[in-house]
Design a protein that fits this description.
about 325 residues, alpha/beta, Rossmann fold, 2 domains, 7-stranded mixed beta sheet, 5-stranded parallel beta sheet, 13 helices, about 20% strand
């Protein structure tokens, strides 16, 4: 064999190695972590809070499609689907589960796994719900954020009474399928008795039941209406605001999102901030933090919002004492 032939064969062989090396190297790169995003809500109406969650991830140095992937599972208000969806994420072997949209999601996730870290967003007390041992030292594989919205029911009743001073018959719309609905209803009824106000409870778990509830509200001639804290009812905010306007009933809601679409009044925390904080926690867990060592985060402020255009349509004059407390007034 001549020297020229040997040289050509050597070059060809080395070229093959050079071509093969990047493929082998890429195969040895660690796989991208996957977040399982489990929500009781639907993707369209939860777009703003999903953006807030991604913002929190970004603050922790993680960006979807770049250095982290997200597997989404949406129950779209059907809480009975959450256990199946949580099991799918566990089977998918996600790195961490973000269980959002209220108590049903983290309860389903907790039932599905004791090893995969879970970061939740919910509206009530996670200790009372049986999700964590304590707020400061959660223990186990769960931690997250709570907006403490359920505890604000009596305060919303107080605001409703100030808004309609002569009100003696105030209705409350609640979803009995939501795990903490009974607790919130009981607290509002207790507050009503102390104020000398009759509080009538109406239940709704579907769009049709919401329509039926408003028929009852009109027949009972309720002086005001309180919407109980619930992800399903949040998802039906357009329907609720439309029916409140149609029946001319002053209504107080639990989040600003209702007022933005024409609701009269809301009192509660920033749900977007809760999701942002959950995103930060998810990123920290991807970096190696343990849920047991991350205290459950709670809101430090609650906000009061009014829609003056809606008040005018209802023929209401919002007392100056309430307007002075408002964080924002939509005109």
């Amino acid at each position: 064999m001549t020297i020229g032939i040997v040289r050509r064969e050597l070059i060809t062989a080395l070229g093959g190695v050079a071509l093969a090396w990047p493929i082998t190297a890429r195969a040895q790169q660690p796989s991208m972590p996957v977040i399982g995003f489990l929500s009781a809500r639907s993707p369209a109406e939860a777009a703003s809070v999903l953006q807030a969650f991604r913002q929190g991830l970004g603050e922790a140095g993680y960006y979807e499609g770049k250095n982290v992937a997200i597997e989404y599972r949406w129950a779209e208000g059907r809480y009975d689907r959450l256990h199946e969806l949580a099991a799918e994420l566990v089977k998918h072997r996600v790195t961490v589960i973000a269980a959002t949209g209220g108590e049903p999601s983290p309860l389903a996730a907790k039932a599905a796994t004791t090893t995969i870290p879970i970061v939740f967003t919910l509206g009530g007390d996670p200790v009372e719900a049986g999700l964590v041992a304590s707020l400061n030292r959660p223990g186990g594989n769960l931690t997250g954020t709570t907006i403490m919205g359920l505890q604000m029911g009596p305060k919303r009743l107080e605001f409703a009474r100030q808004l309609v001073p002569n009100a003696s018959n105030i209705a409350m719309l609640a979803n009995p399928r939501f795990p903490t609905a009974l607790t919130e209803v009981r607290e509002v009824q207790d507050a009503g008795r102390s104020l000398g106000v009759e509080t009538r409870i109406l239940n709704a778990s579907t769009e049709n039941e919401i329509d039926t509830a408003f028929t009852s509200i009109a027949q009972q001639r309720a002086d005001a209406l309180i919407i109980a804290t619930d992800p399903f009812l949040l998802g039906q905010r357009d329907q609720l605001v439309r029916l409140a306007a149609l029946n001319k009933v002053p209504t107080i809601y639990f989040l600003r999102e209702f007022v933005e679409v024409g609701g009269l009044m809301s009192y509660g925390p920033s749900i977007a901030n809760g999701y942002r904080q959950a995103g930060v926690y998810t990123g920290r867990i991807l970096d190696g933090a343990k849920p047991a060592d991350l205290p459950v985060l709670r809101p430090t402020t609650f906000q009061l919002f009014f829609n003056l255009r809606t008040a005018k349509t209802l023929g209401l004059t919002i007392p100056l004492t309430l307007l002075a407390l408002a964080d924002e007034v939509i005109e």
